[in-house]
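PROTOCOL LOG
Step 1. Enter all chains and additional molecules of the complex.
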Amino acid sequence: MLDYRLDEETEALRKVVREFAVEVIAPQIGGFYERDEFPTDIVRQMGELGLFGLPFPEEYGGSGGDYFTLCVALEELARVDSSVAITLEAGVSLGAMPIFRFGTEEQKHQWLPRLCAGEALGAFGLTEAGGGSDAGATKTTARLEDGEWVINGSKAFITNSGTEITDLVIVTAVTGTKADGGKEISAIIVPSGTPGFAVGKRYAKVGWNASDTRELSFSDCRVPAENLVGERGRGYAQFLSILDEGRIAISALAVGLAQGCVDESVKYAGEREAFGQPIGRNQAVQFMIADMEVRASTARLAYYRAAEKMLRGEPFKREASIAKLYSSEMAMENARYATQVHGGYGFMTEFPVGRFYRDAKILEIGEGTSEVQRMLIARSLGLG
Amino acid sequence: MNIVVLVKQVPDSGSERKLDPSDNTVARATADNVINEMDEYAIEEALTVKEAQGGEVTVLTVGPDTATDAIRKALSMGADKAVHVSDPAIHGSCAVQTSAVIAAALSQLEYDLVLCGAESTDGQVSVMPALLSERLGIPQLSGARKLTIEGSMAKIERQTDGGYWEVEAPLPAIVSTWDTINEPRYPSFKGIMAAKKKPVETKTLADLGIDASTVGLATATSKVVDFAGRPPKGEGVKVADEGDGADKLVGYLAAQKIV
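Step 2. Run joint prediction.
Step 3. Record the structure below.
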């Protein structure tokens, strides 16, 4: 039995997010993007829709949906803008999810209600200037002293870490040496404003310009010992266990961007006239757009499939990698063709496709590069 | 405070809308049907009143089975329950006939306040508040851009071309709203999930005690006799600027009585 129709509630959510994206986000996001400004008010409204609480139960302030409903919302947001989509994705998958999965009851009740309501954002500080996917390269340290973690080091490229509504950053740090001599890495909650925790200025990025990405530094930053998230020494392993589902979310975001490319290209090709007729009458343009639609539709199936396996409780690592790899690469391709359909106007930042083109590239990099995905897929086939 | 909101499902005004050539009625089956835009403002106003004063919001709709989508949306925004009058005999009814159906349905409900949009984007007859006022013997306050409930009085600012009138009436009353009155909320996911558990009562004409022969296209007081598509856009006028372009433009606008 195969059924990839959305159920009534998910379809209703999809429509609401679509409406919200078209009516509220589309008219103003270009300005935020150009000004490199975080759209706090849009994020607050996304919170009112319940988007930040989608995969969490109501007892923690969540909306009582599941991870797939989050993906559907991400797709519809990214169809209009990727900055707000990644803000939601990171806020949920990286900011709130570790606390929900590994936190104590007390931590969940303390932090999740505001995160679920979109009143506050959480961030996850893993990556350092010296390395992304390589946990062994972690240099940030945390030592236990008088019932407090004393954190020293720095983190790079941390999404949502410096907005005016950021409540906390979960930081991975070396807390000792394992029996095998390797680094013991743990995850620790650092509330915003803690002395010794400095948030750097926003990076100047190629894309995702209305999202918040910063460098963080810790200098004898002290937080209570009970801010440890999950088991000591399991910080990186915990992160890896939520990374696979994050790849499905990135895939949904890529599909949204790719579909947005189709939307904009269809519109433009119908309006723009050259040599006495709309350019959409030209087969060369039609074929480009048809191929874009094929890629977006196919990639959607890939992330639906991965999400379906995940919700069933089956292993989904390979499907998540396939979805992430394929959809991010095809989003890049769709952005390239959509810009081509738009000609010179596609190179102007005021057109959404100009934004899509700049936003697409990072999808092949974040949450595991294309090369990492290929390596994982090859490994799952018994190679290497 | 018991509030009933009248909600109508209409073809989306943003997409192509058609009449069915077999009987000249609105082609609903093939349309992209949505909740009438103006009704969303009435729902929002009902929820605002309820949040301030307590009570219950009931959605009442007359329409085919597909109208459940409009009901579901109203419930997901926060209305408490719904009544759906659905009967094949209603097809093609005029506003006068429809008002008899709505009045009968309202008579089976308890209400202090009836809210509706000031017009529907399909028929745009805009007479429902007046017809219901007459049938139910309650005052109508139409075209509100602001509503205040004070004790047993409803006060509105009635929007006009030049400004507004302050009008008030004792409850129960029927109030119709323009899109200037508020900003309708988007349903939250919790609201969407909650909507499926809310009661929707379906009623037929027999349940309302209405004789089916008194409604429908055959006995409608008005009907569409004929229709034609909008004529294609004309060529327009080209003004060649030979140093006097501005004068020509103004001359054209003046001739059209635009300036």
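Step 4. Note key features.
Chain A has three domains: 8-121, 123-233, 237-380.
The CA atoms of residues 32 and 39 of chain A lie 6 Å apart.
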